[in-house]
Design a protein that fits this description.
Organism: Dechloromonas hankyongensis
Order of helices and strands: EHEHEHEHEHEEEEHEHHEEE
CATH architecture of the largest domain: 3-Layer(aba) Sandwich
Helix content: 25-40%
Number of domains: 2
InterPro entries: CheY-like_superfamily (IPR011006), OmpR/PhoB-type_DNA-bd (IPR001867), Sig_transdc_resp-reg_C-effctor (IPR016032), Sig_transdc_resp-reg_receiver (IPR001789), WalR-like (IPR039420), WH-like_DNA-bd_sf (IPR036388)
Shape: globular
Distance between the termini: 35 Å
CATH superfamily of the largest domain: Response regulator
Protein name: Response regulator transcription factor
Keywords: DNA-binding, Phosphoprotein, Transcription, Transcription regulation, Two-component regulatory system
Pfam families: Response_reg (PF00072), Trans_reg_C (PF00486)
Length: about 240
């Protein structure tokens, strides 16, 4: 159990009080601080003064579609995002991942699995923030691992989600090497039918590649994995 100074803050965006109470209780039992927001508007107002480490967002919110809420959170915060939804449609889950969510869970959920996924996202976020090398440069791009910012050669700045940053971190630390999908997913168990990594690759390509159909950096090696084709240099400045 962590003290309140170091415990991670989780924002729960859920309009069902009973579900919210279960989430608050189980996360509290495992040392997390929580704040409950009944609506997307409530969360967006609180983000002006709160800096949660992770937001758990229900897709079925009363005042705003959860996908839109997630996009607005992502636009103003680098926090982790976990989608919690009763929607079983694959398209909803894929759209959530494409738009910047780090993971998703379906209702009804197993409380311990929820905790495990929250911990996984928070750990990934911390690993990006505490990397010894803070700035990676490749092909005119600059990637700041301390704040998830990606600076294009033309000076345009992109904010990456935690999942995108984790993926790019693996690539810049392993340039010119074929990486299996399992390696790119980190510690998460990967089923043969799990296409989450491919969705994340697609998201990252759209930001990095002028022509995503003919990528210059992230190459697909069919039957083997992916290759990050770039010369990477490092510096310790925060940028």
């Amino acid at each position: 159990m962590k003290d309140n100074e170091t415990a991670k803050l989780i924002a729960i965006v859920e309009d069902d009080p009973d579900v919210a109470k279960i989430i608050e209780q189980v996360l509290g039992d495992f040392g997390f601080r929580t704040v409950w927001c009944r609506s997307a508007g409530d969360l967006l107002r609180r983000l002006r003064t709160l800096a949660p480490d992770l937001c758990i967002i229900d897709l079925g919110l009363p005042d705003m579609d959860g996908i839109e809420a997630m996009q607005r959170v992502r636009a103003q915060s680098a926090c982790g995002i976990l989608i919690l939804t009763g929607r079983a449609h694959v398209s909803d889950r894929v759209m959530g991942l494409e738009l910047g969510a780090d993971d998703y869970m379906l209702k009804p959920f197993e409380p311990r699995e929820l905790v495990a996924r929250v911990r996984s996202i928070v750990r990934r976020r911390e690993s990006v923030e505490t990397s010894g090398h803070q700035m990676a440069e490749f092909g005119g791009w600059r990637f700041n691992l301390s704040n998830n910012r990606l600076l294009a050669p033309n000076g345009e700045e992109h904010a990456l989600s935690t999942a995108e940053s984790e993926l790019l971190k693996v690539f810049v630390n392993n340039p010119n090497r074929i990486l299996q999908r399992e390696k790119l997913m980190g510690s998460r168990d990967l089923a043969p039918t799990d296409r989450a990594i491919d969705v994340r690759i697609s998201r990252l390509r759209r930001k990095l590649e002028p022509d995503a159909q003919s990528p210059a950096f992230i190459k697909t090696v069919y039957g083997a994995g992916y290759l990050f084709l770039a010369a990477v240099t490092w510096s310790g400045e925060a940028g």
